[in-house]
Structures are given as structure tokens and as C-alpha cells.
Amino acid sequence: MHHAVVDRWSSGHSLLHARDGRVKVLVCLGFLAAVATTPRLTALYAAGYGLAALAAVMVARLPLGALLVRAAVVLPFSGTFALVSLLAGDSPRAVALLAKSYLSAVAVLILVGSTPLPTILRSLERLRAPRLVVLVVQFLYRYLFVISEQAQHMRLAALSRGGWRFRSAAGAIAVLFARSYARAEGVHRAMLARGFQGHLTLLAPVRADWRDGLLLAGGWALIAFLRWGLEGVWSR
Amino acid sequence: MHIPDGFLSAPVWLSLDAAALSLVGYLARQAQRESGEAWAPRLGVLGAFVFAAQMINFPVGVGTSGHLVGSALLALVLGPAAAAVVMTAILALQALIFQDGGVLALGANVVNMALAGVLAGYLPFRWWGAGRFRQFAIFLGGFFSVLAAALLAIAELRLSGVPIPAPVLWITLGLFTVTATLEGIITVAVVRGRDRLGLGLAPQPGARYARGLAVVGLACALLAVLGGLAASRHPDVLEKLLERLGLATSRGSQ
């Protein structure tokens, strides 16, 4: 794992990539809330939400197959609970658990696939998420791959020295901790030396225009229709 | 156990999101007051460490392995406020980038692992960490951090009406007891490794936290109790399951 694939997706260009991060976050949250609060997720609802998500994938020009496969990481967990629900005689709930968790994962992937993480984080900060947490996520993501790689190297080294046992794993984590701590000190000092005062600056300023307003209004209107209007229109 | 979206009912995820947002906001201000905002890079790197450490497998017995969760270890090294902030950051990143846990369910996962997990990991060490029972206190911290998080997750699922029949519940609890024991042992082993390298643990924070800690602890206990009540209100789930199984066997014998 050298690189999260969503980083490549989010650096692309499309109508959806160009929209304001806050708007995309809000529309995504609206979609998630609609899916989560749909009482019985029938095939009609699933088709409505699914088509809306598909349209977003098309507009953002994201690789559909790869995205659907990636979203499937939620299925082992929901599959287990779906199976239990099925055995307990609640098959609608079993279907709803699978469909809801999968649709939600797809929606989040569309958000992070069309918006670089720093932009999402800045948007969350503007939407009043705790600032220290947002900053910590930012640095965590910056150093995640660096330290994971170091961990892999240490594992390889221990293996080639003749074995990977409980003690060597614990020792490796202790050493990794010490190295991370030292790196953290260094990074901290370097940031202070560069005048870091507790927030990061984006190259492109966050500014919403009429297209962002259109996406917010249109997106929420569509979601509200799918949630409350679709069944009535269909049955008429 | 990262709860994905679509599992929790609206009252549960809404109230837990609100609780998590306000509590983490409070703890973030505490951590900031302690060390200033410029501390963020350091916390981020340590979060990345926990993330990487979660990928290191610990061989246990034949063919099985566990991994570190890390909330107790972070609580011991950073103190509870900063540890809760780092765990929240880890969970947020897992939900956004790795689809491990839902975005609406983030509040629930934060309450389980970043608040209750850190608190349960920290309290034994705070009470008994100085004396003869230091190793045991560290073990208990690791053990309870995992168990508390698991119990809360189960309580939240049951409150949301997700059926967890008794046999499944006992198997799940058994498995979590095993992982909790592992977490305790791994935490002790890593702290021992740190001792050998001559690195200390967190300076004991003053009594300022006491009220915040008590509030979080009480709220979590209340939630677990509510989950238990919800469980006893729907005893029919088990009967339904047995009925089904009975049906299946009688059909098979025909």
C-alpha cells in the first residue's frame, strides 16, 4: 500500500471535481441521511438511490468498476449481520442492511474520489468540525504511508533475521513507536521553524459560486424527491 | 468493530454524533490548552503510527493472529484528551478513505473507541499505575478498552433494532474477550519495550479532567445499560431463530 487509489481519482478533472468542497460534503451527508432513514429499503428505493449515485459517478468520470469493488469492503461486516437477520426471520432488514451500507460506502467514495482530502478537511473545518481534529487528520494522512512503509521494512528485517514471533512483533512496535515519536518531534520543530501557527493554507481559496449553489439546491431536491416523493409517483 | 452506515436508527446515530462532536470538541480544546495548536503535527504522526501498528500482526498460537487497536497505548503515552483526539482522527480517516466504518455512524464509533475506549484504557493506569500492580493495570487498560468499545457497539446495534440473538451474542462476546486479552498483552509488551528503550509514559494530568472523565464514563455506562434493556425487551428474536432452525430441521427430516 504505497498510495491510496482515491488520491489518484480525486486529482482528476470534471464538473464534480470543480465544485466547492462544502457543497459536496453537504450533498453527500444529505444522501447518507436519506438512505439511513428510509424505513424499508425496497427495490424501488434502491434503484432510485443507485441511479442517482451512478449519475454522480458518470459526471465525476470515476472508474465505475473499481469504485463498486472498493465499496464492497463493507460487505463482509454487513453480510454477517444480514445473515443473522435472515436466520431470525427478518429478511427485509437483511436486504436493507446490505443495500444501505453498500450505497453509503459508494456515496462516500464518490465524495472522496472527486475531492482531494485537504479540500474535504478544509470544508469540514468551515462547517465547524473541531479544528484540532481536522489538523491531526491532515498530518496523519501525510505520514501514514511513510510510517506504514517503515513498519513493513521492520517486519521484513525481523523475518529475514529468523522469525516473526510475538516478542519480535512487540519489540518492533515499541521501536516503531520510538522512531515515530522522534519523527514527530522533528516534524513539529520543522513546522514551527517554517512559521506554522496551527492551520494549513490551501493553494486555491475556497470560494463558492452559482454552480455550487445549483448543485446544493439540485442535489438536496433530488435526494428529498427520492426519499419522500418517489414511492407516491411510482404507485400512481 | 467499526459500525458502517445503514445499521443504526436515526435517534441513535443523531444523538451519538451530537455527543461525539461536543465531547471531542471539548477534549480538543483541553488538549490545545495543554500544548497549543502547533502540537497537531506531532499528534498526527503518532496517529499514523497507530494506523501502521494496526497492520502489524501478532502471531498467537497456531495460525491465528491479532493486532493492536491502540486506544489504551495512546492514552498511556499522550494522556486521555490528546489520545481521544488522535483516535477520532484515525476513525475519521478510516471512514472517509478506507470505508472502515460509516460517516453518519462516525459519532457512534468515536464514542465507542475514541471516548469509551480511551477512558477505559486510561483509568486502571491512573488508579493503580504507580504501585506494584503497574503491569497489571496496563493489561487491564488494554483489556477494558477493547471490551468497553465492543459492548457499546453491541448496545447501539440492539438499540437500533438489529437482531443479535443470544447464541450470536455469546459467540461475539467470547471472541471480543479473546481480542481484549490480546490487546492487554500487546499493550503491556509494547510498554515494556518502551521502558527498555528508556521512554516514559504520559505525565499524570491534574484533576481538571476528572469531571469530563466522569461524564463520559457515566454516559457510556448508561448507554450500555440501555442496550441491555433493549435486549430484554425483544426476547422474541431468539425464539424466532430457534423456531426457524426447528423448522429447517423438521423439513430436512421429512
Describe the model.
The complex is a heterodimer of chains A (236) and B (254). Chain A has 236 residues and is mainly α. Helices cover 76% and strands 0% of the residues of chain A. Chain A contains 10 helices and no strands. Chain B is globular. Chain B has helices at residues 10-35, 40-53, 71-78, 80-97, 106-128, 134-159, 166-196, 210-233, 236-253; strands at 58-60, 64-66. Chain B has 9 helices and 2 strands. Chain B has a single domain (10-253), classed as Orthogonal Bundle (Arp2/3 complex 21 kDa subunit ARPC3). With 254 residues, chain B is mainly alpha-helical. Chain B is 74% helix and 2% strand. In chain B, helix 2 (40-53) packs across helix 4 (80-97), helix 3 (71-78) crosses helix 6 and helix 6 (134-159) crosses helix 8 (210-233). The chains are: A mainly alpha (236), B mainly alpha (254). At the A-B interface, helix 2, helix 5, helix 6, helix 8 and helix 9 of A face helix 1, helix 2, strand 1, helix 4 and helix 7 of B.
Question: Could you write a compact summary of the structure shown?
Answer:
Chain A is an all-alpha fold and 236 residues long. Chain A has helices at residues 5-10, 21-37, 43-60, 64-71, 75-87, 91-114, 117-126, 131-160, 166-193, 210-235.
Strand content of chain B: under 5%
Largest sheet of chain B, order of strands side by side?
1-2
**What's the helix-strand series of chain B?**
HHEEHHHHHHH
SS-based structural class of chain A? mainly alpha
The total of beta strands of chain A comes to 0
**Using only CA atoms, what is the Rg of chain A?**
22 Å
Oligomerization state of this entry? heterodimer
Question: Main attributes?
Answer:
heterodimer; A: 236 residues; mainly alpha; 2 domains; 10 helices; globular; B: 254 residues; Arp2/3 complex 21 kDa subunit ARPC3; 74% helix
